[in-house]
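Thread: "does anyone have the structure for this chain?"

Original post by V.I.:
We have the sequence but no experimental structure in hand. Need at least a predicted one for the grant figures.
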Amino acid sequence: TVWSTASLTIWERLFSVIILPIALVFTALFVGSTTMLMQQSTNFARDLAKQRSALTTVARHYKFPPELCVRIRHFIEADKSLRNLREREDRLLKELSPDLQRDLKMQIYGALIARHSFMKFLISRNPPFVRHLCSILGIHDFLAYEFIFNPGDACTVVRFVVDGQLQYMHSYELEESSTINLLVGSSTSRSNAFDGSRVTTPNSESAQGIQLSEQVCRGKCVSEPVLWTLWEHCGELVSLSVGSCALLESDSFEEIVKLYPMVTWLSVLYSRQFIIHLNKNIMSDIVEPPAVQEWEPEAIEAIAEEGADLPFKDELPSHCTPQVVKACVLLSQDVAAHGLDENRPHHGFTVIIGEEGALATCGKSGFNPFQGHDVRVITENGLVCEEAIEIVRRNAFHTDGAIVVDGLSGRVVASSWFVGDIRLGGMEGGARSRSARAVAQQAGGCYVIKCSEDSKGKLILHLGTKARVFNSELKTKDVGAPGSCQMAKDSGTTCNAKTSL
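Reply from O.Q.:
Generated one for you, tokens below.
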């Protein structure tokens, strides 16, 4: 071989000058990374050895059974890497602002908890609450064949399965399995579940159709009753694979709910139906939530009372007087219970009491028969004006839109009025329900009366973000009974319904 002895060109020398430092830098990075990985591996092995040595010492001192030692050793070996992962996540979250932390956790857990019907409903009604709720969720990582809880354990958290697979067995099923083992002479112990020797059964039911054994996968909610009542675990939950659960502390949930009045009201409605639903079946940690139709505000049958106070009376905005609101509620109850004139049935309606000027920017009316007229539902003395009530009954309740009444004067502003923006009304329910919820939060707050087509007296009342089912008889103090307008005329008081439509 003949080697060339020709001198290098200027470009070859320049290339060498540039490449050599770069090569040295990459070599240093490679050596440094390798050294760091070896150091981490050494530290990991050293920590693991220390933990194994401590386990051996404690096991000998307290005479642990061999299967318990194996379970602890498996947990120590696997939990180290999981802890490192969570520590990195915690460091990342601490670097973010509280607002960004909530957005990040909402992105992670929002879709997960939305698989629960009540949480999905709350997302449509009050997204800020669910965002706040996601920010307090904890995380629990589990290994394969690890006991999560046992029958009789006190329960303080709800678990939403993030990933992995678990097996839930009711205490009844466990008792049956123990009885079978005794009959066949099996010596399989409960502690053998850690290594997979227990054969998990598929979803099974009792003779009464009660779910006793069930495999739990992503999105499933476990131990929901602890949110609504004092609870002990009724069965055993064992992991079948590596995974994790999002944890919701019952005490933290209660504290956050109290910060959101609308959510508090909805939670009361839901919890009542949930407890009724729970008591109808065998107590279990896995409970299918009651159907939305059983607890949604418009589906609740309110108990009728005599002499009830006006709902939200102490919370009325300054542009809504109790006299005007009471007159509208009385009229709405009468139409809901008895229909329109000439025995015509009503087909559902909405009455909005608010500030006329502010409402002008929130919607509009198509054909408005009340434009240019001065029809008022109360007299100058604040009594119900029967003549005006009859005019409204004949001309306002047969249209599709809402009836708008000024909250101070009681003047009927419009009928056939439609809300311009219903986004605040959420995604649940029909257009009328969403419009009622939306406009109640607009124009400085409105008192909205909604009646469904099949109602025989029940009303849904909205004020701001609050809602209430009302089917009681109002106290008539300071509000004239039917015929009060005529009595006002007899005493020399004039009625504000100055024109007939």
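V.I.: this helps a lot. Residues 10-62 form the longest helix (53 residues).
O.Q.: and Residues 123 and 130 are 6 Å apart (CA to CA).
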